[in-house]
Amino acid sequence: MLQVRNLHKSFGGFKAVNGANLQVADGEIVAVIGPNGAGKTTLFNLITGILSPDGGQVMFKGEDITGLPAHRTCKKGITRSFQVVNIFSRLTVFENVRIAVLSQQGKTFNLFTPSRRLVTDETASILKSVGLMKKKDSVCGALSHGDQKVLEIAIALGGKPELLILDEPTAGMSPEETARCIDLIKELRSSMGLTILFCEHDMEIVFGIANRIMVMVRGATIIQGACDEVRCNQAVQDAYLGGGDVCSV
Amino acid sequence: MGARKSIVALVIVLAILAIAPLGLPRFYTYLIALIVTTGLLSTSLNFVLGFGGIYQFHHAVFYGAGAYGAAIMIAKLGYSGWLGFVAGPLVAAALSFIIGLICVRLSKLYFGMLQISLGSLVWAIVYRWYGFTGGDDGIHGIPMPELVGSPLGAYYFALIVGGLSLLVMHRILNSPFGSTLQGIRDNAVRSQAVGVNVRRHQLAAIVIAGFFGGVAGVLFVVVDNSVFPDMMFWTLSLEITIMALLGGWLTFLGPMLGAAVIVCLRTFVSGFTDYWTLILGILLVLVILFLPEGLLGYVLEAWKRRTSESAEG
Predict the structure, then answer these.
(1) pLDDT above 90 (res B42)
(2) Among the partner residues A71, A87, A111, nearest to B197 by beta-carbon distance
(3) To the nearest whole number, what is the mean pLDDT of chain B?
(4) Residue A68 distance to chain B (closest CA, Å)
């Protein structure tokens, strides 16, 4: 579904992404891991068009989407959540998701129908699926951090994605919230048939839900493969997992 | 505030305004018409400023464009008044499209600075082009259609057109376009990520705001039968920005309230002292320090708190 080939991006002299490669097949859950500053978020920004790459290629469903602006990649079927909570803080939970649904349906240039009459069912069903329906009228700036992270995912779902990209979905969550979030991600794949690409620091989560793992170090892909293959790879252990023998864990 | 209560309040206000000329001296109807005109201008600015988060620092230029568009159509080119009234807002919308197209690629303060520059350029042209715009004298004694030729006719025209414009803007702000605009204000990157073409929506909002700024300009022509370059001087832009801040820039009717306060202050206090702007300045400092959401913003907030308390208790 998604192929990233030899992607490059520099900021000034700093090579944030320096030869990233990634394959995501239909229906897979793929994790990107790597130390802080490895370029994971930049990679996601390049795929979704928030940033434009200096070199390399991004193919989605056989189509070249390299450098396409964010609002276009979203319409192609790639939506994302953000690592640092990035929501419409003055609006309610419901309104947050509704904007995404309105945009997905191409209704944002409708000038005269009241918004409250449109897409309420679609919005409600998304909120139900992530368990935020009870809080739909809360101004989302006032939600707990965990709920805001879930709202992130809900907004991304509003774009009716085929490929959902989650940038550290559980960062800053309590253990209970994390458990709930993991269940949610699994549920999204099984019930909605979504393909999911995510990055995460918590190895338990990564090995728990990913089908395949891509490892980035200093902007470059060092390996992509099945969990066991990655876990036992010497280069990964040296670079990232601390050099100890984790293969037997 | 419940929708029904708001409608009742609105109807009462409209009814009072409708019968006001019967009991009030002519000066006061002129004053009310001026408040409606200036308030509409400030509301149209707030459409992009408060609801769009776009720093349109020189909005008055579209007020001037609407007024001059109508005045020149009527007084220089000899078209009928009604045609001039339609042409004014269209001229303003066209100008806002051109200026908006140039500025919209910049963000926040950079947008504001470029917008002031381009607006001032338009002002300079109008100020100097004696043959066409009347230069710094402006154009006076613009002939009006009979229906709006009398002060009373002008008053009702301003009231009706001003009211309709407010309704349309209110409607737009509650539409998907309005929701999207407010989403862009709160978080442009997120808006992009859900598939919104941010620049295109901002440009559309700028054109809509410019159009209604132009409508306000036409109202001024009808009420005052004259235009002059001060209408698009940057100080007026500052004044209507202050009105929006004073009244509450996150509320729809805040700018109208701000306009009422400032126009009254200017009219009545300037009779006693030349330093009325000093009083305005102190008032503004107090509002910014103690009521950062503006007068109406504060009232609505207090209202919400009371109703939620009584609902809980």
Answers:
(1) yes
(2) A71
(3) 90
(4) 12
User: Contact B148/B136 with Cβ under 8 angstroms?
Assistant: no
pLDDT at A247: 53
Cβ of A111 within 8 Å of Cβ of B175? The answer is: yes
Burial B120-140 (b: 16+ CB within 10 A, else e): bebbeebbeeeeebbeeebbe
Tokens representing A2 are 């998604």
> Phi then psi for A193, rounded to 5 degrees?
65, 30
- Tokens 């999204």 belong to A188
Using pLDDT thresholds of 50, 70 and 90, give the confidence band for residue A97.
Answer: very high
Chain position carrying tokens 């036409």? B218
Compute the distance between CA of residue A5 and CA of residue B35 in angstroms, rounded to an integer. 62
Q: Report d(CA B81, CA A118) in Å as an integer.
A: 40
| A-to-B residue pairs, Cβ atoms closer than 8 angstroms | 105
**What is the domain extent for residue B21?**
3-312
Q: How far apart are CA A246 and CA A232, in angstroms?
A: 7
Name the residue in chain A with its Cα closest to that of B178.
A111
Q: Say which of B174, B189, B191 has its CB closest to residue A115.
A: B174
Total domains in chain B come to 1
In chain A, whose CA is at the least distance from the CA of B204? A109
Whether the predicted pLDDT of B228 surpasses 90: yes
List helix spans (H) across B129-197: 130-133, 151-173, 176-186, 188-193
DSSP line for A24-48: E-TT-EEEEE-STTSSHHHHHHHHH
pLDDT band at A76 (very low <50, low <70, confident <90, very high): very high
B183 and A71 within 8 Å at the Cβ level: the answer is no
Residue pLDDT, tens place only, A158-217: 999 999 999 999 888 888 889 889 999 988 888 888 999 999 888 888 888 899 999 988
CB nearest to B177's CB, from A48, A89, A108: A108
Q: Kindly report the CA angle at A13 between A8 and A19, in degrees rounded to 5? A: 20
CATH number at residue B72: 1.10.3470
pTM, two decimals, is 0.88
What is the CATH code of the structural domain delimited by A78-160?
3.40.50.300
Task: Output the CATH code of domain A1-68+161-249.
Answer: 3.40.50.300
Give the CA radius of gyration of chain A: 18
Residues in chain A within 8 Å Cβ distance of B209: none
Q: Which residues of B touch A115 (CB under 8 A)?
A: 174-176, 178-179
ipTM above 0.95, yes or no: no
Q: Where are the domains of chain A?
A: 1-68+161-249, 78-160
